[in-house]
Fold:
Amino acid sequence: MSPTQLQYQSSWFQGPHWLCQEQEYWPRTEESNQEELEPTLLEERSSSFPTQAFPPSELFSIRSSYTDLVRLVALLRRFRFNSQACNRQQRKLGIISHEELEKSMLVLVRLSQKECFSAELRSLTKYGHVQEWSSIMSLRPQLSSEGLIHVGGRLLHASIPESRKHPFILNHHHPLTLLIMRHYYLKLFHAGQQLLIASVRERFWPTSIHSLARRVIHECIACFKNKPKVSEQMMADLPPERETPSSPFLKVGVDYCEPFLISYPNRKARPVKCYVAIFVCLAVKAVHLELVTDLTTAAFLAALKRFVARRGKPQVIMCDNATTFVGAKRELMELYKLFYSQQFQESITKHAGSDGIDFRFIPPRSPNFSGLWEAQVKSFKTHFRKTIGLRTLNVDEMQTALAQIEAVLNSRPMTPVSSDPNDFEALTPGHFLVHRPLTAIPEPDLQGVPFNRLSIWQRAQSFTQQLWKKWSTQYLSDLHNRTKWTKQRDNITVGTMVLLKDENAPPLKWNLARVVKIFAGRDGNIRVVTVRTKDGCFDRGILKICVLPIRDNTHQSTADGY
Structure:
């Protein structure tokens, strides 16, 4: 009920009438227990009253700026004065004076105090002090000559202006207080919290000013654009391709590595650019490197055919559409155009579909969706740059270097196999490559058969099954941990205003966008959205967007960066 109705309800303040009688006359019910009604076991709670007695006036929602609101009230007061003037000579004309603005400010403060501190106003008018339960009791509030509540305080003899000695008390929930805080924040050129609080308290004394100052700073769109924070969501579960035992290179991810220079023997022409296609097995992290001469669809399909001929036909190929390379270097724009062009995607998908290969593209500008093969690209670059440096290799030397680096990457440990010194030191991707023929067929489980009853071929198959068993019990268990993004976040909804992150532009030049479509993962969390900008609609991962701190309420200001 409203506070006006509450003051006539005696049961709220005094309780039921039988509570004033002896305990033996209290009503009894089947559920009640007399032992629980002992005074020593009763829980004592202090009652609190609502701070804001009346809803805020619609006047405070007409303007989103404190200066505009004060000027509007000044115009209304002048119109009323001129309407009541006896003759034209008494009317006020021209520019609004400072005195009129000051009186308009006092009118707004009086209205806000009446809405928030009505009980305190009645108590100060009648008794000269507020009740002990008042939230502003510690400020020793007093009434000014204008009938406004101001701070009494202890600075009576300080050599400071009267406005600093006795600032007007405001409630931090009232919209006028929020407008004043934003006014000072913009006036001080987006100052810090301490300076903002000190400046506001020279004239006004809002309650809970620290939390209000943090809110004003947090909701400033201009400050957010200057230092935006990208959206996050709890790390997703691993896809089935990474947690299901399968033959090496049955499910792979592919990516291109930056251009290198190679030369051809017996040719005086200048060196030409080449690229390296990196195929990574999603199950055992095995790596396959292929040299690609140029950025054409035919060259990529040729590299894919060489990969299939040497490693077997994959079922699934996952690929980055290379928009992460935009703007890094001029030559990388060619790589972007190749992967992002619809013609390339249709050609690759058509060719792969005819061979029974499922070719998938991850969302644009979302390298976190391809972290497995992006890590292998980084490892390859590290080995290549430290060993080759800036030298220009010929074709044979480049092929040899790629084969040797591939052997090194396939020898890196995945997890310790066992503590037996006679056993393998570590489980590596190479263990799965050299013990599996390309056309291997499923074999029966030989784990329960004694080793002396196995044939030579069965012993080899038993060794392979032991590797997969240890892969499942040791390596797969290590994938439980979420290295980052461990907290559940609120999902992004359709209609949210965001900033579209661009690594090649300063944050203040990032484009505004609105979320028009969301894509839920297997766990129901949103990690990919479709945003609409002035240039069109794009699919982006949430790590490439920054949600603007805009609240949907009736008093939310949208002017001056809010």
Observations:
- Confidence is low (pLDDT under 50) at residues 31-51, 323-333, 436-443, 553-559.
